Amino acid sequence: MSFDDILLNIISRLDGERYKHAAFHLMKGKRSGQTLQDTEYYGLHPFFGMLPSLHAMDFDRAYRSLLDSGFIEEKEDRSVFLTPSGRGRASELSPVRLNGWAYRGMEKVFFARLALTVQTVSHLSAGDKTFMPVSADPAVQRDVRRLFSSVLKGIKPKDIAFEIRSSLETTGMEEARLARLVARLTGKGMSGMTWRQLSEVTGMTEMDLKVECVESLHIWLDTIFAHPSPLLSELAKGVRTSSPLTGSAEKTAELYRAGMTMPEIATRRNLRMSTIEDHFVEIAINDSDFPLHHFAADEEVKAVRQEADRLSTRKLSVLKKAFPELSYFQLRLILARLGKEGNESERDDSARPDRPAQTGNRI
Amino acid sequence: MNEMIQQDLTALLKRVTGFDAFREGQEEVVRSVINGHDTIAVLPTGAGKSLCYQLPVHAMGGTVLIVSPLLSLMEDQVAQLKMNGEKRVAALNSFLAPKERSAVLANLGKYRYLFTSPEMLVQPHISDRIKQLELAYIVADEAHCISQWGFDFRPDYLRMREWLGSLGERPPVLALTATASEKAIQDIADYLLMKQQKLFIHPPDRPNIAMELVRQESREEKTKWILNALTGWKGPGIIYVQSRKRAEELAELLRLRNIRVAAFHAGMEGEDRILVQQQFLTGELEWICATNAFGMGINKPDIRWIIHDQLPPSAAQYIQEIGRAGRDGGQSLATLLYTETDADKAAFIALDDLPEPETVRFIGKCISEGMELKEAGDRAGLSDTALRVVSYWLGRLGTDKAAIQMEELAAGKRKEIFSMVRFAEGGGCIRSRILALFGYAPATRPVHCCSDCGFVADQFLSARTTVDNASGLLGWKERIDGLLGVGE
């Protein structure tokens, strides 16, 4: 799928509710409350953090091209929506196979380890012990060095080739796509191609090639986790996010579990209250045990949900107008839990021993 | 220590490296270090500088501390030593994971060669450990980086002075560099607190590199000249250009003429930069169109031709860049393309990164008002390098003197550019005139000396007779098997 199509796909999910920046932050994997909420509300997990080093210029070029082709338009308030022809185009797109939420740019580490391993085996099997490593990253060099004294010990190049080939076959990706993926690998006397060179040979743009490569790696990694094999599983170690929370939000969560109030946490951590609020929204999105009732009365939660459904919107500004007595923070928390608790909202809310009792969190 | 007689050194060389004889200039330096003298050695690129610091320790025992301002270079040298079978070598730098750093620190005394960066050296816990070592001698590699007059001044390198000053009795210091003006040599001796230092200077002359000067009216003419030259003759070679845009533009024009070429500049992804270097080393690429980001640590012996599309801002930089040709000793060519407007461009680039005196005052004021250095730099729009330079001088001299210092630096750079302009516009033997900028004269006149004395390119460049056709993508299975050396 081309970069333009990916962007169209994202906008089709945000249809009319967000500005263009939402899509940009999403692809870069910004860890702000807003982006994390958007990801959750609109089911954008495949795209989250798919291009951590995306340039605003590349993004703008794609956005403009969608505007120019008449697939998208902006409303007066600058939020972006799909035109009928854009809708038509979006419905024809093949399903996305990105898995940004799980890998968040770490697929690059997997590929760097793979590339250095292949290069090392290639040189060693040619009796050549001196070469310039394709990865300058010391962590990657360390990881690969370790492999040569463990899983790769005594293994023949033939077996490695077989393992890689079998795994790639299992992914079901088409031949031409796989050729583009492995064209970036380097061996003795066979250097990998730069994006520019790959673009010259294939006629695809560099941007489309990079996006395709990310998706190919996500597909491959999903396959490796589903069908482990000795070397590839080792190369893929640690590239999948284990905790859905960011490090900072995790710390806030710990302090909250230990019984501190939000203002206390802000003081202790020397962070602004708005940051702590972002953390709480992130926690609410990810923690099925989040005690929403500590932050808003059940009737309020219910009313907001009904209104959101009625208007079929998740726009904060719209909901704030309907519930001026609720804070933005409360609305964000309610939205964060939307669709997660379903009918359970009436469940028993007896205080849990590991949670603080009602604290002065209504801001 | 007694003066060592020649046989001993040659025997040592043979035992350690397997070589029968020293290359020119090496032996005196090695002897001077063994005899405990502070030593400055200026040896041209490709003359075998590393041997000068690698050999003496085998006669002296203990540990050599090598301080290097460039991380990439440090990594290269460590790799090189390891490749030659040396196990007692380690690098203490910011690349190390905390765990590895502790491992190195725990074993410091076991290493024969210990590489480190100036930043590491002044960290108290590391400095204390190093001071306890039995150091045979201390090496300042790429020592010209210590001079603020040089084209790649690294302020961090000046920290070495503080560290040396904190040592009571210290072992000899060896400063190594490929190019250094008289002024830079003085700086090196001062900043490294040298006493009665021995100086070994070998003119930066490379007799196997013919020098050509071509004057053009415009950039378009330069382009035409390059396209014409490269469709007639083969590389491998490097075209040094001044901007990323120019690198891309030339590479594209050459590629359309079926020349295997790629651009190289700091705007490219790190992986792609490595791939381009790799392709150039293996010969998959014949030419590189590069900004001066290319070349440090590149060791390709058979580069035949260096073309400068723009006047370099200093003689030292020019010599350094053309010195990448002909390391295998083979006859090579260096071409400088010059137009009158080059001087302005060179000045613009060279001075662009240097902060104005007003900027220095502004930063000084911000800091005195309690602003973070980083923020002050952002407000003034300074690059990281420039900010490092400013902060160093602010800390040392205070605001007013630091501002004056900036003016002096700018004046120094302008002077260097001006002498390059005179070089490019002047007449007479090109080799003699560039060497004169360093205060030397060529020892002999090579057969292929320069475009003024005359040289015959077709006696050493190969004519381009065949045309390379771009190949398509290999099938993925074939490529994996090919990479891993698995034949079907």
Automatic annotation (TrEMBL), chain A:
Top-level division of the source organism's lineage: Bacteria
Bias type Basic and acidic residues, positions: 342-355
Ranges for domain Helicase Helix-turn-helix: 248-335
Spans annotated as Disordered: 342-363
This protein's name: Uncharacterized protein YpbB
Lineage: Bacteria, Bacillati, Bacillota, Bacilli, Bacillales
From TrEMBL, chain B:
Any Pfam family the entry gives: DEAD
InterPro entries the record matches: DEAD/DEAH_box_helicase_dom, DNA_helicase_ATP-dep_RecQ, Helicase_ATP-bd, Helicase_C-like, P-loop_NTPase
Keywords noted in UniProt: ATP-binding, Helicase, Hydrolase, Nucleotide-binding
One GO process term, biological-process aspect: DNA recombination
One GO CC annotation: cytoplasm
Domain of life: Bacteria
Span of domain Helicase ATP-binding: 30-198
UniProt entry tagged with the keyword S-adenosyl-L-methionine: no
GO molecular function: 3'-5' DNA helicase activity; ATP binding; four-way junction helicase activity; hydrolase activity; nucleic acid binding
Annotated ranges, domain Helicase C-terminal: 222-374
PANTHER family associated with the record: ATP-DEPENDENT DNA HELICASE RECS-RELATED, DNA HELICASE RECQ FAMILY MEMBER
Protein's UniProt name: ATP-dependent DNA helicase RecQ
